[in-house]
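From the methods appendix. Each design record in this collection lists the tokenized structure first, followed by the designed amino acid sequence. Records were kept in a plain field format so they could be parsed without special tools. The example shown here is representative of the layout used throughout.

RECORD:
FOLD TOKENS (253 positions):
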């Protein structure tokens, strides 16, 4: 489809949309190479700057990735984190993925000293410990290790047994009756890391694969910490994106 040089949309926006249609209608798969800058320039009769701006838009949107010296390739679809206190199931579903998970283990254990400090508990307090594997469209994308104080589960920690939880979201169980927790907010800390051999085997990657390490502490409205979770997401299957805004006039910063 030719570009409308007299239309209201900038040429790079029209070109971006045209290339997106090419990728989708042409049946290009993740990892396939997209047309070169020179070919795009000749096909659409636009400047090099317009081509580069359109490709930069596609890269920013996660549609393509550029490899120095090789060109641009269709990206593997990534789950994009949003700054909301949602479950993996809710997040993945909202972006068109089919989520699922496997509970690798679920048991009641005495909390470790590090976890006790973050949860505000005495060392040795009984907690439900969960280890789960997250999948999107059948592909493993992450692992989670979660500590939940048994006292916060109001005598119903058995609802988080391995067989029961395999069929539903942990947050759905926690927030529904009979447990009925009201999750108010969470604090997350993100850092880079690399997969160890055991985790790599579960995620279908090589040991040393780059990952995002996320530590989440979730709180009720009265400030009680009721969840401590360590999340590991494969770097090329999950991205953490935060929208920033300039401070209000007269504000600090």
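DESIGN:
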């Amino acid at each position: 489809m030719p570009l409308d040089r007299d239309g209201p949309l900038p040429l790079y926006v029209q070109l971006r949309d045209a290339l997106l249609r090419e990728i989708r209608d042409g049946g290009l798969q993740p990892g396939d190479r997209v047309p070169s800058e020179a070919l795009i320039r000749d096909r659409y009769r636009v400047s090099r700057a317009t081509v580069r701006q359109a490709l930069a838009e596609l890269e920013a949107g996660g549609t393509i990735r550029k490899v120095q010296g090789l060109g641009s390739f269709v990206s593997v679809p990534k789950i994009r984190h949003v700054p909301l206190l949602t479950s993996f199931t809710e997040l993945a579903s909202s972006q068109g993925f089919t989520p699922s998970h496997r509970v690798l283990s679920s048991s009641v254990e005495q909390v470790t000293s590090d976890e006790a400090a973050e949860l505000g508990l005495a060392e040795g307090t009984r907690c439900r410990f969960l280890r789960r594997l997250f999948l999107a469209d059948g592909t493993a994308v992450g692992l989670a290790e979660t500590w939940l104080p048994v006292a916060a589960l109001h005598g119903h920690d058995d609802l988080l047994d391995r067989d029961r939880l395999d069929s539903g979201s942990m947050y759905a169980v926690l927030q529904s009756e009979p447990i009925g927790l009201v999750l108010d907010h969470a604090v997350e800390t993100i850092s880079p890391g690399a997969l160890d051999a055991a985790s790599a085997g579960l995620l279908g990657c090589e040991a040393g694969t780059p990952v995002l390490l996320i530590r989440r502490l979730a709180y009720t409205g009265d400030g009680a910490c009721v969840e401590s979770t360590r999340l590991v997401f494969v770097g090329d299957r999950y991205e953490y994106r935060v929208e920033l805004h300039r401070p209000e006039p007269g504000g600090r910063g």
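APPENDIX NOTE: Helices lie at 11-25, 37-44, 48-60, 88-94, 113-119, 162-165, 170-175, 197-203.
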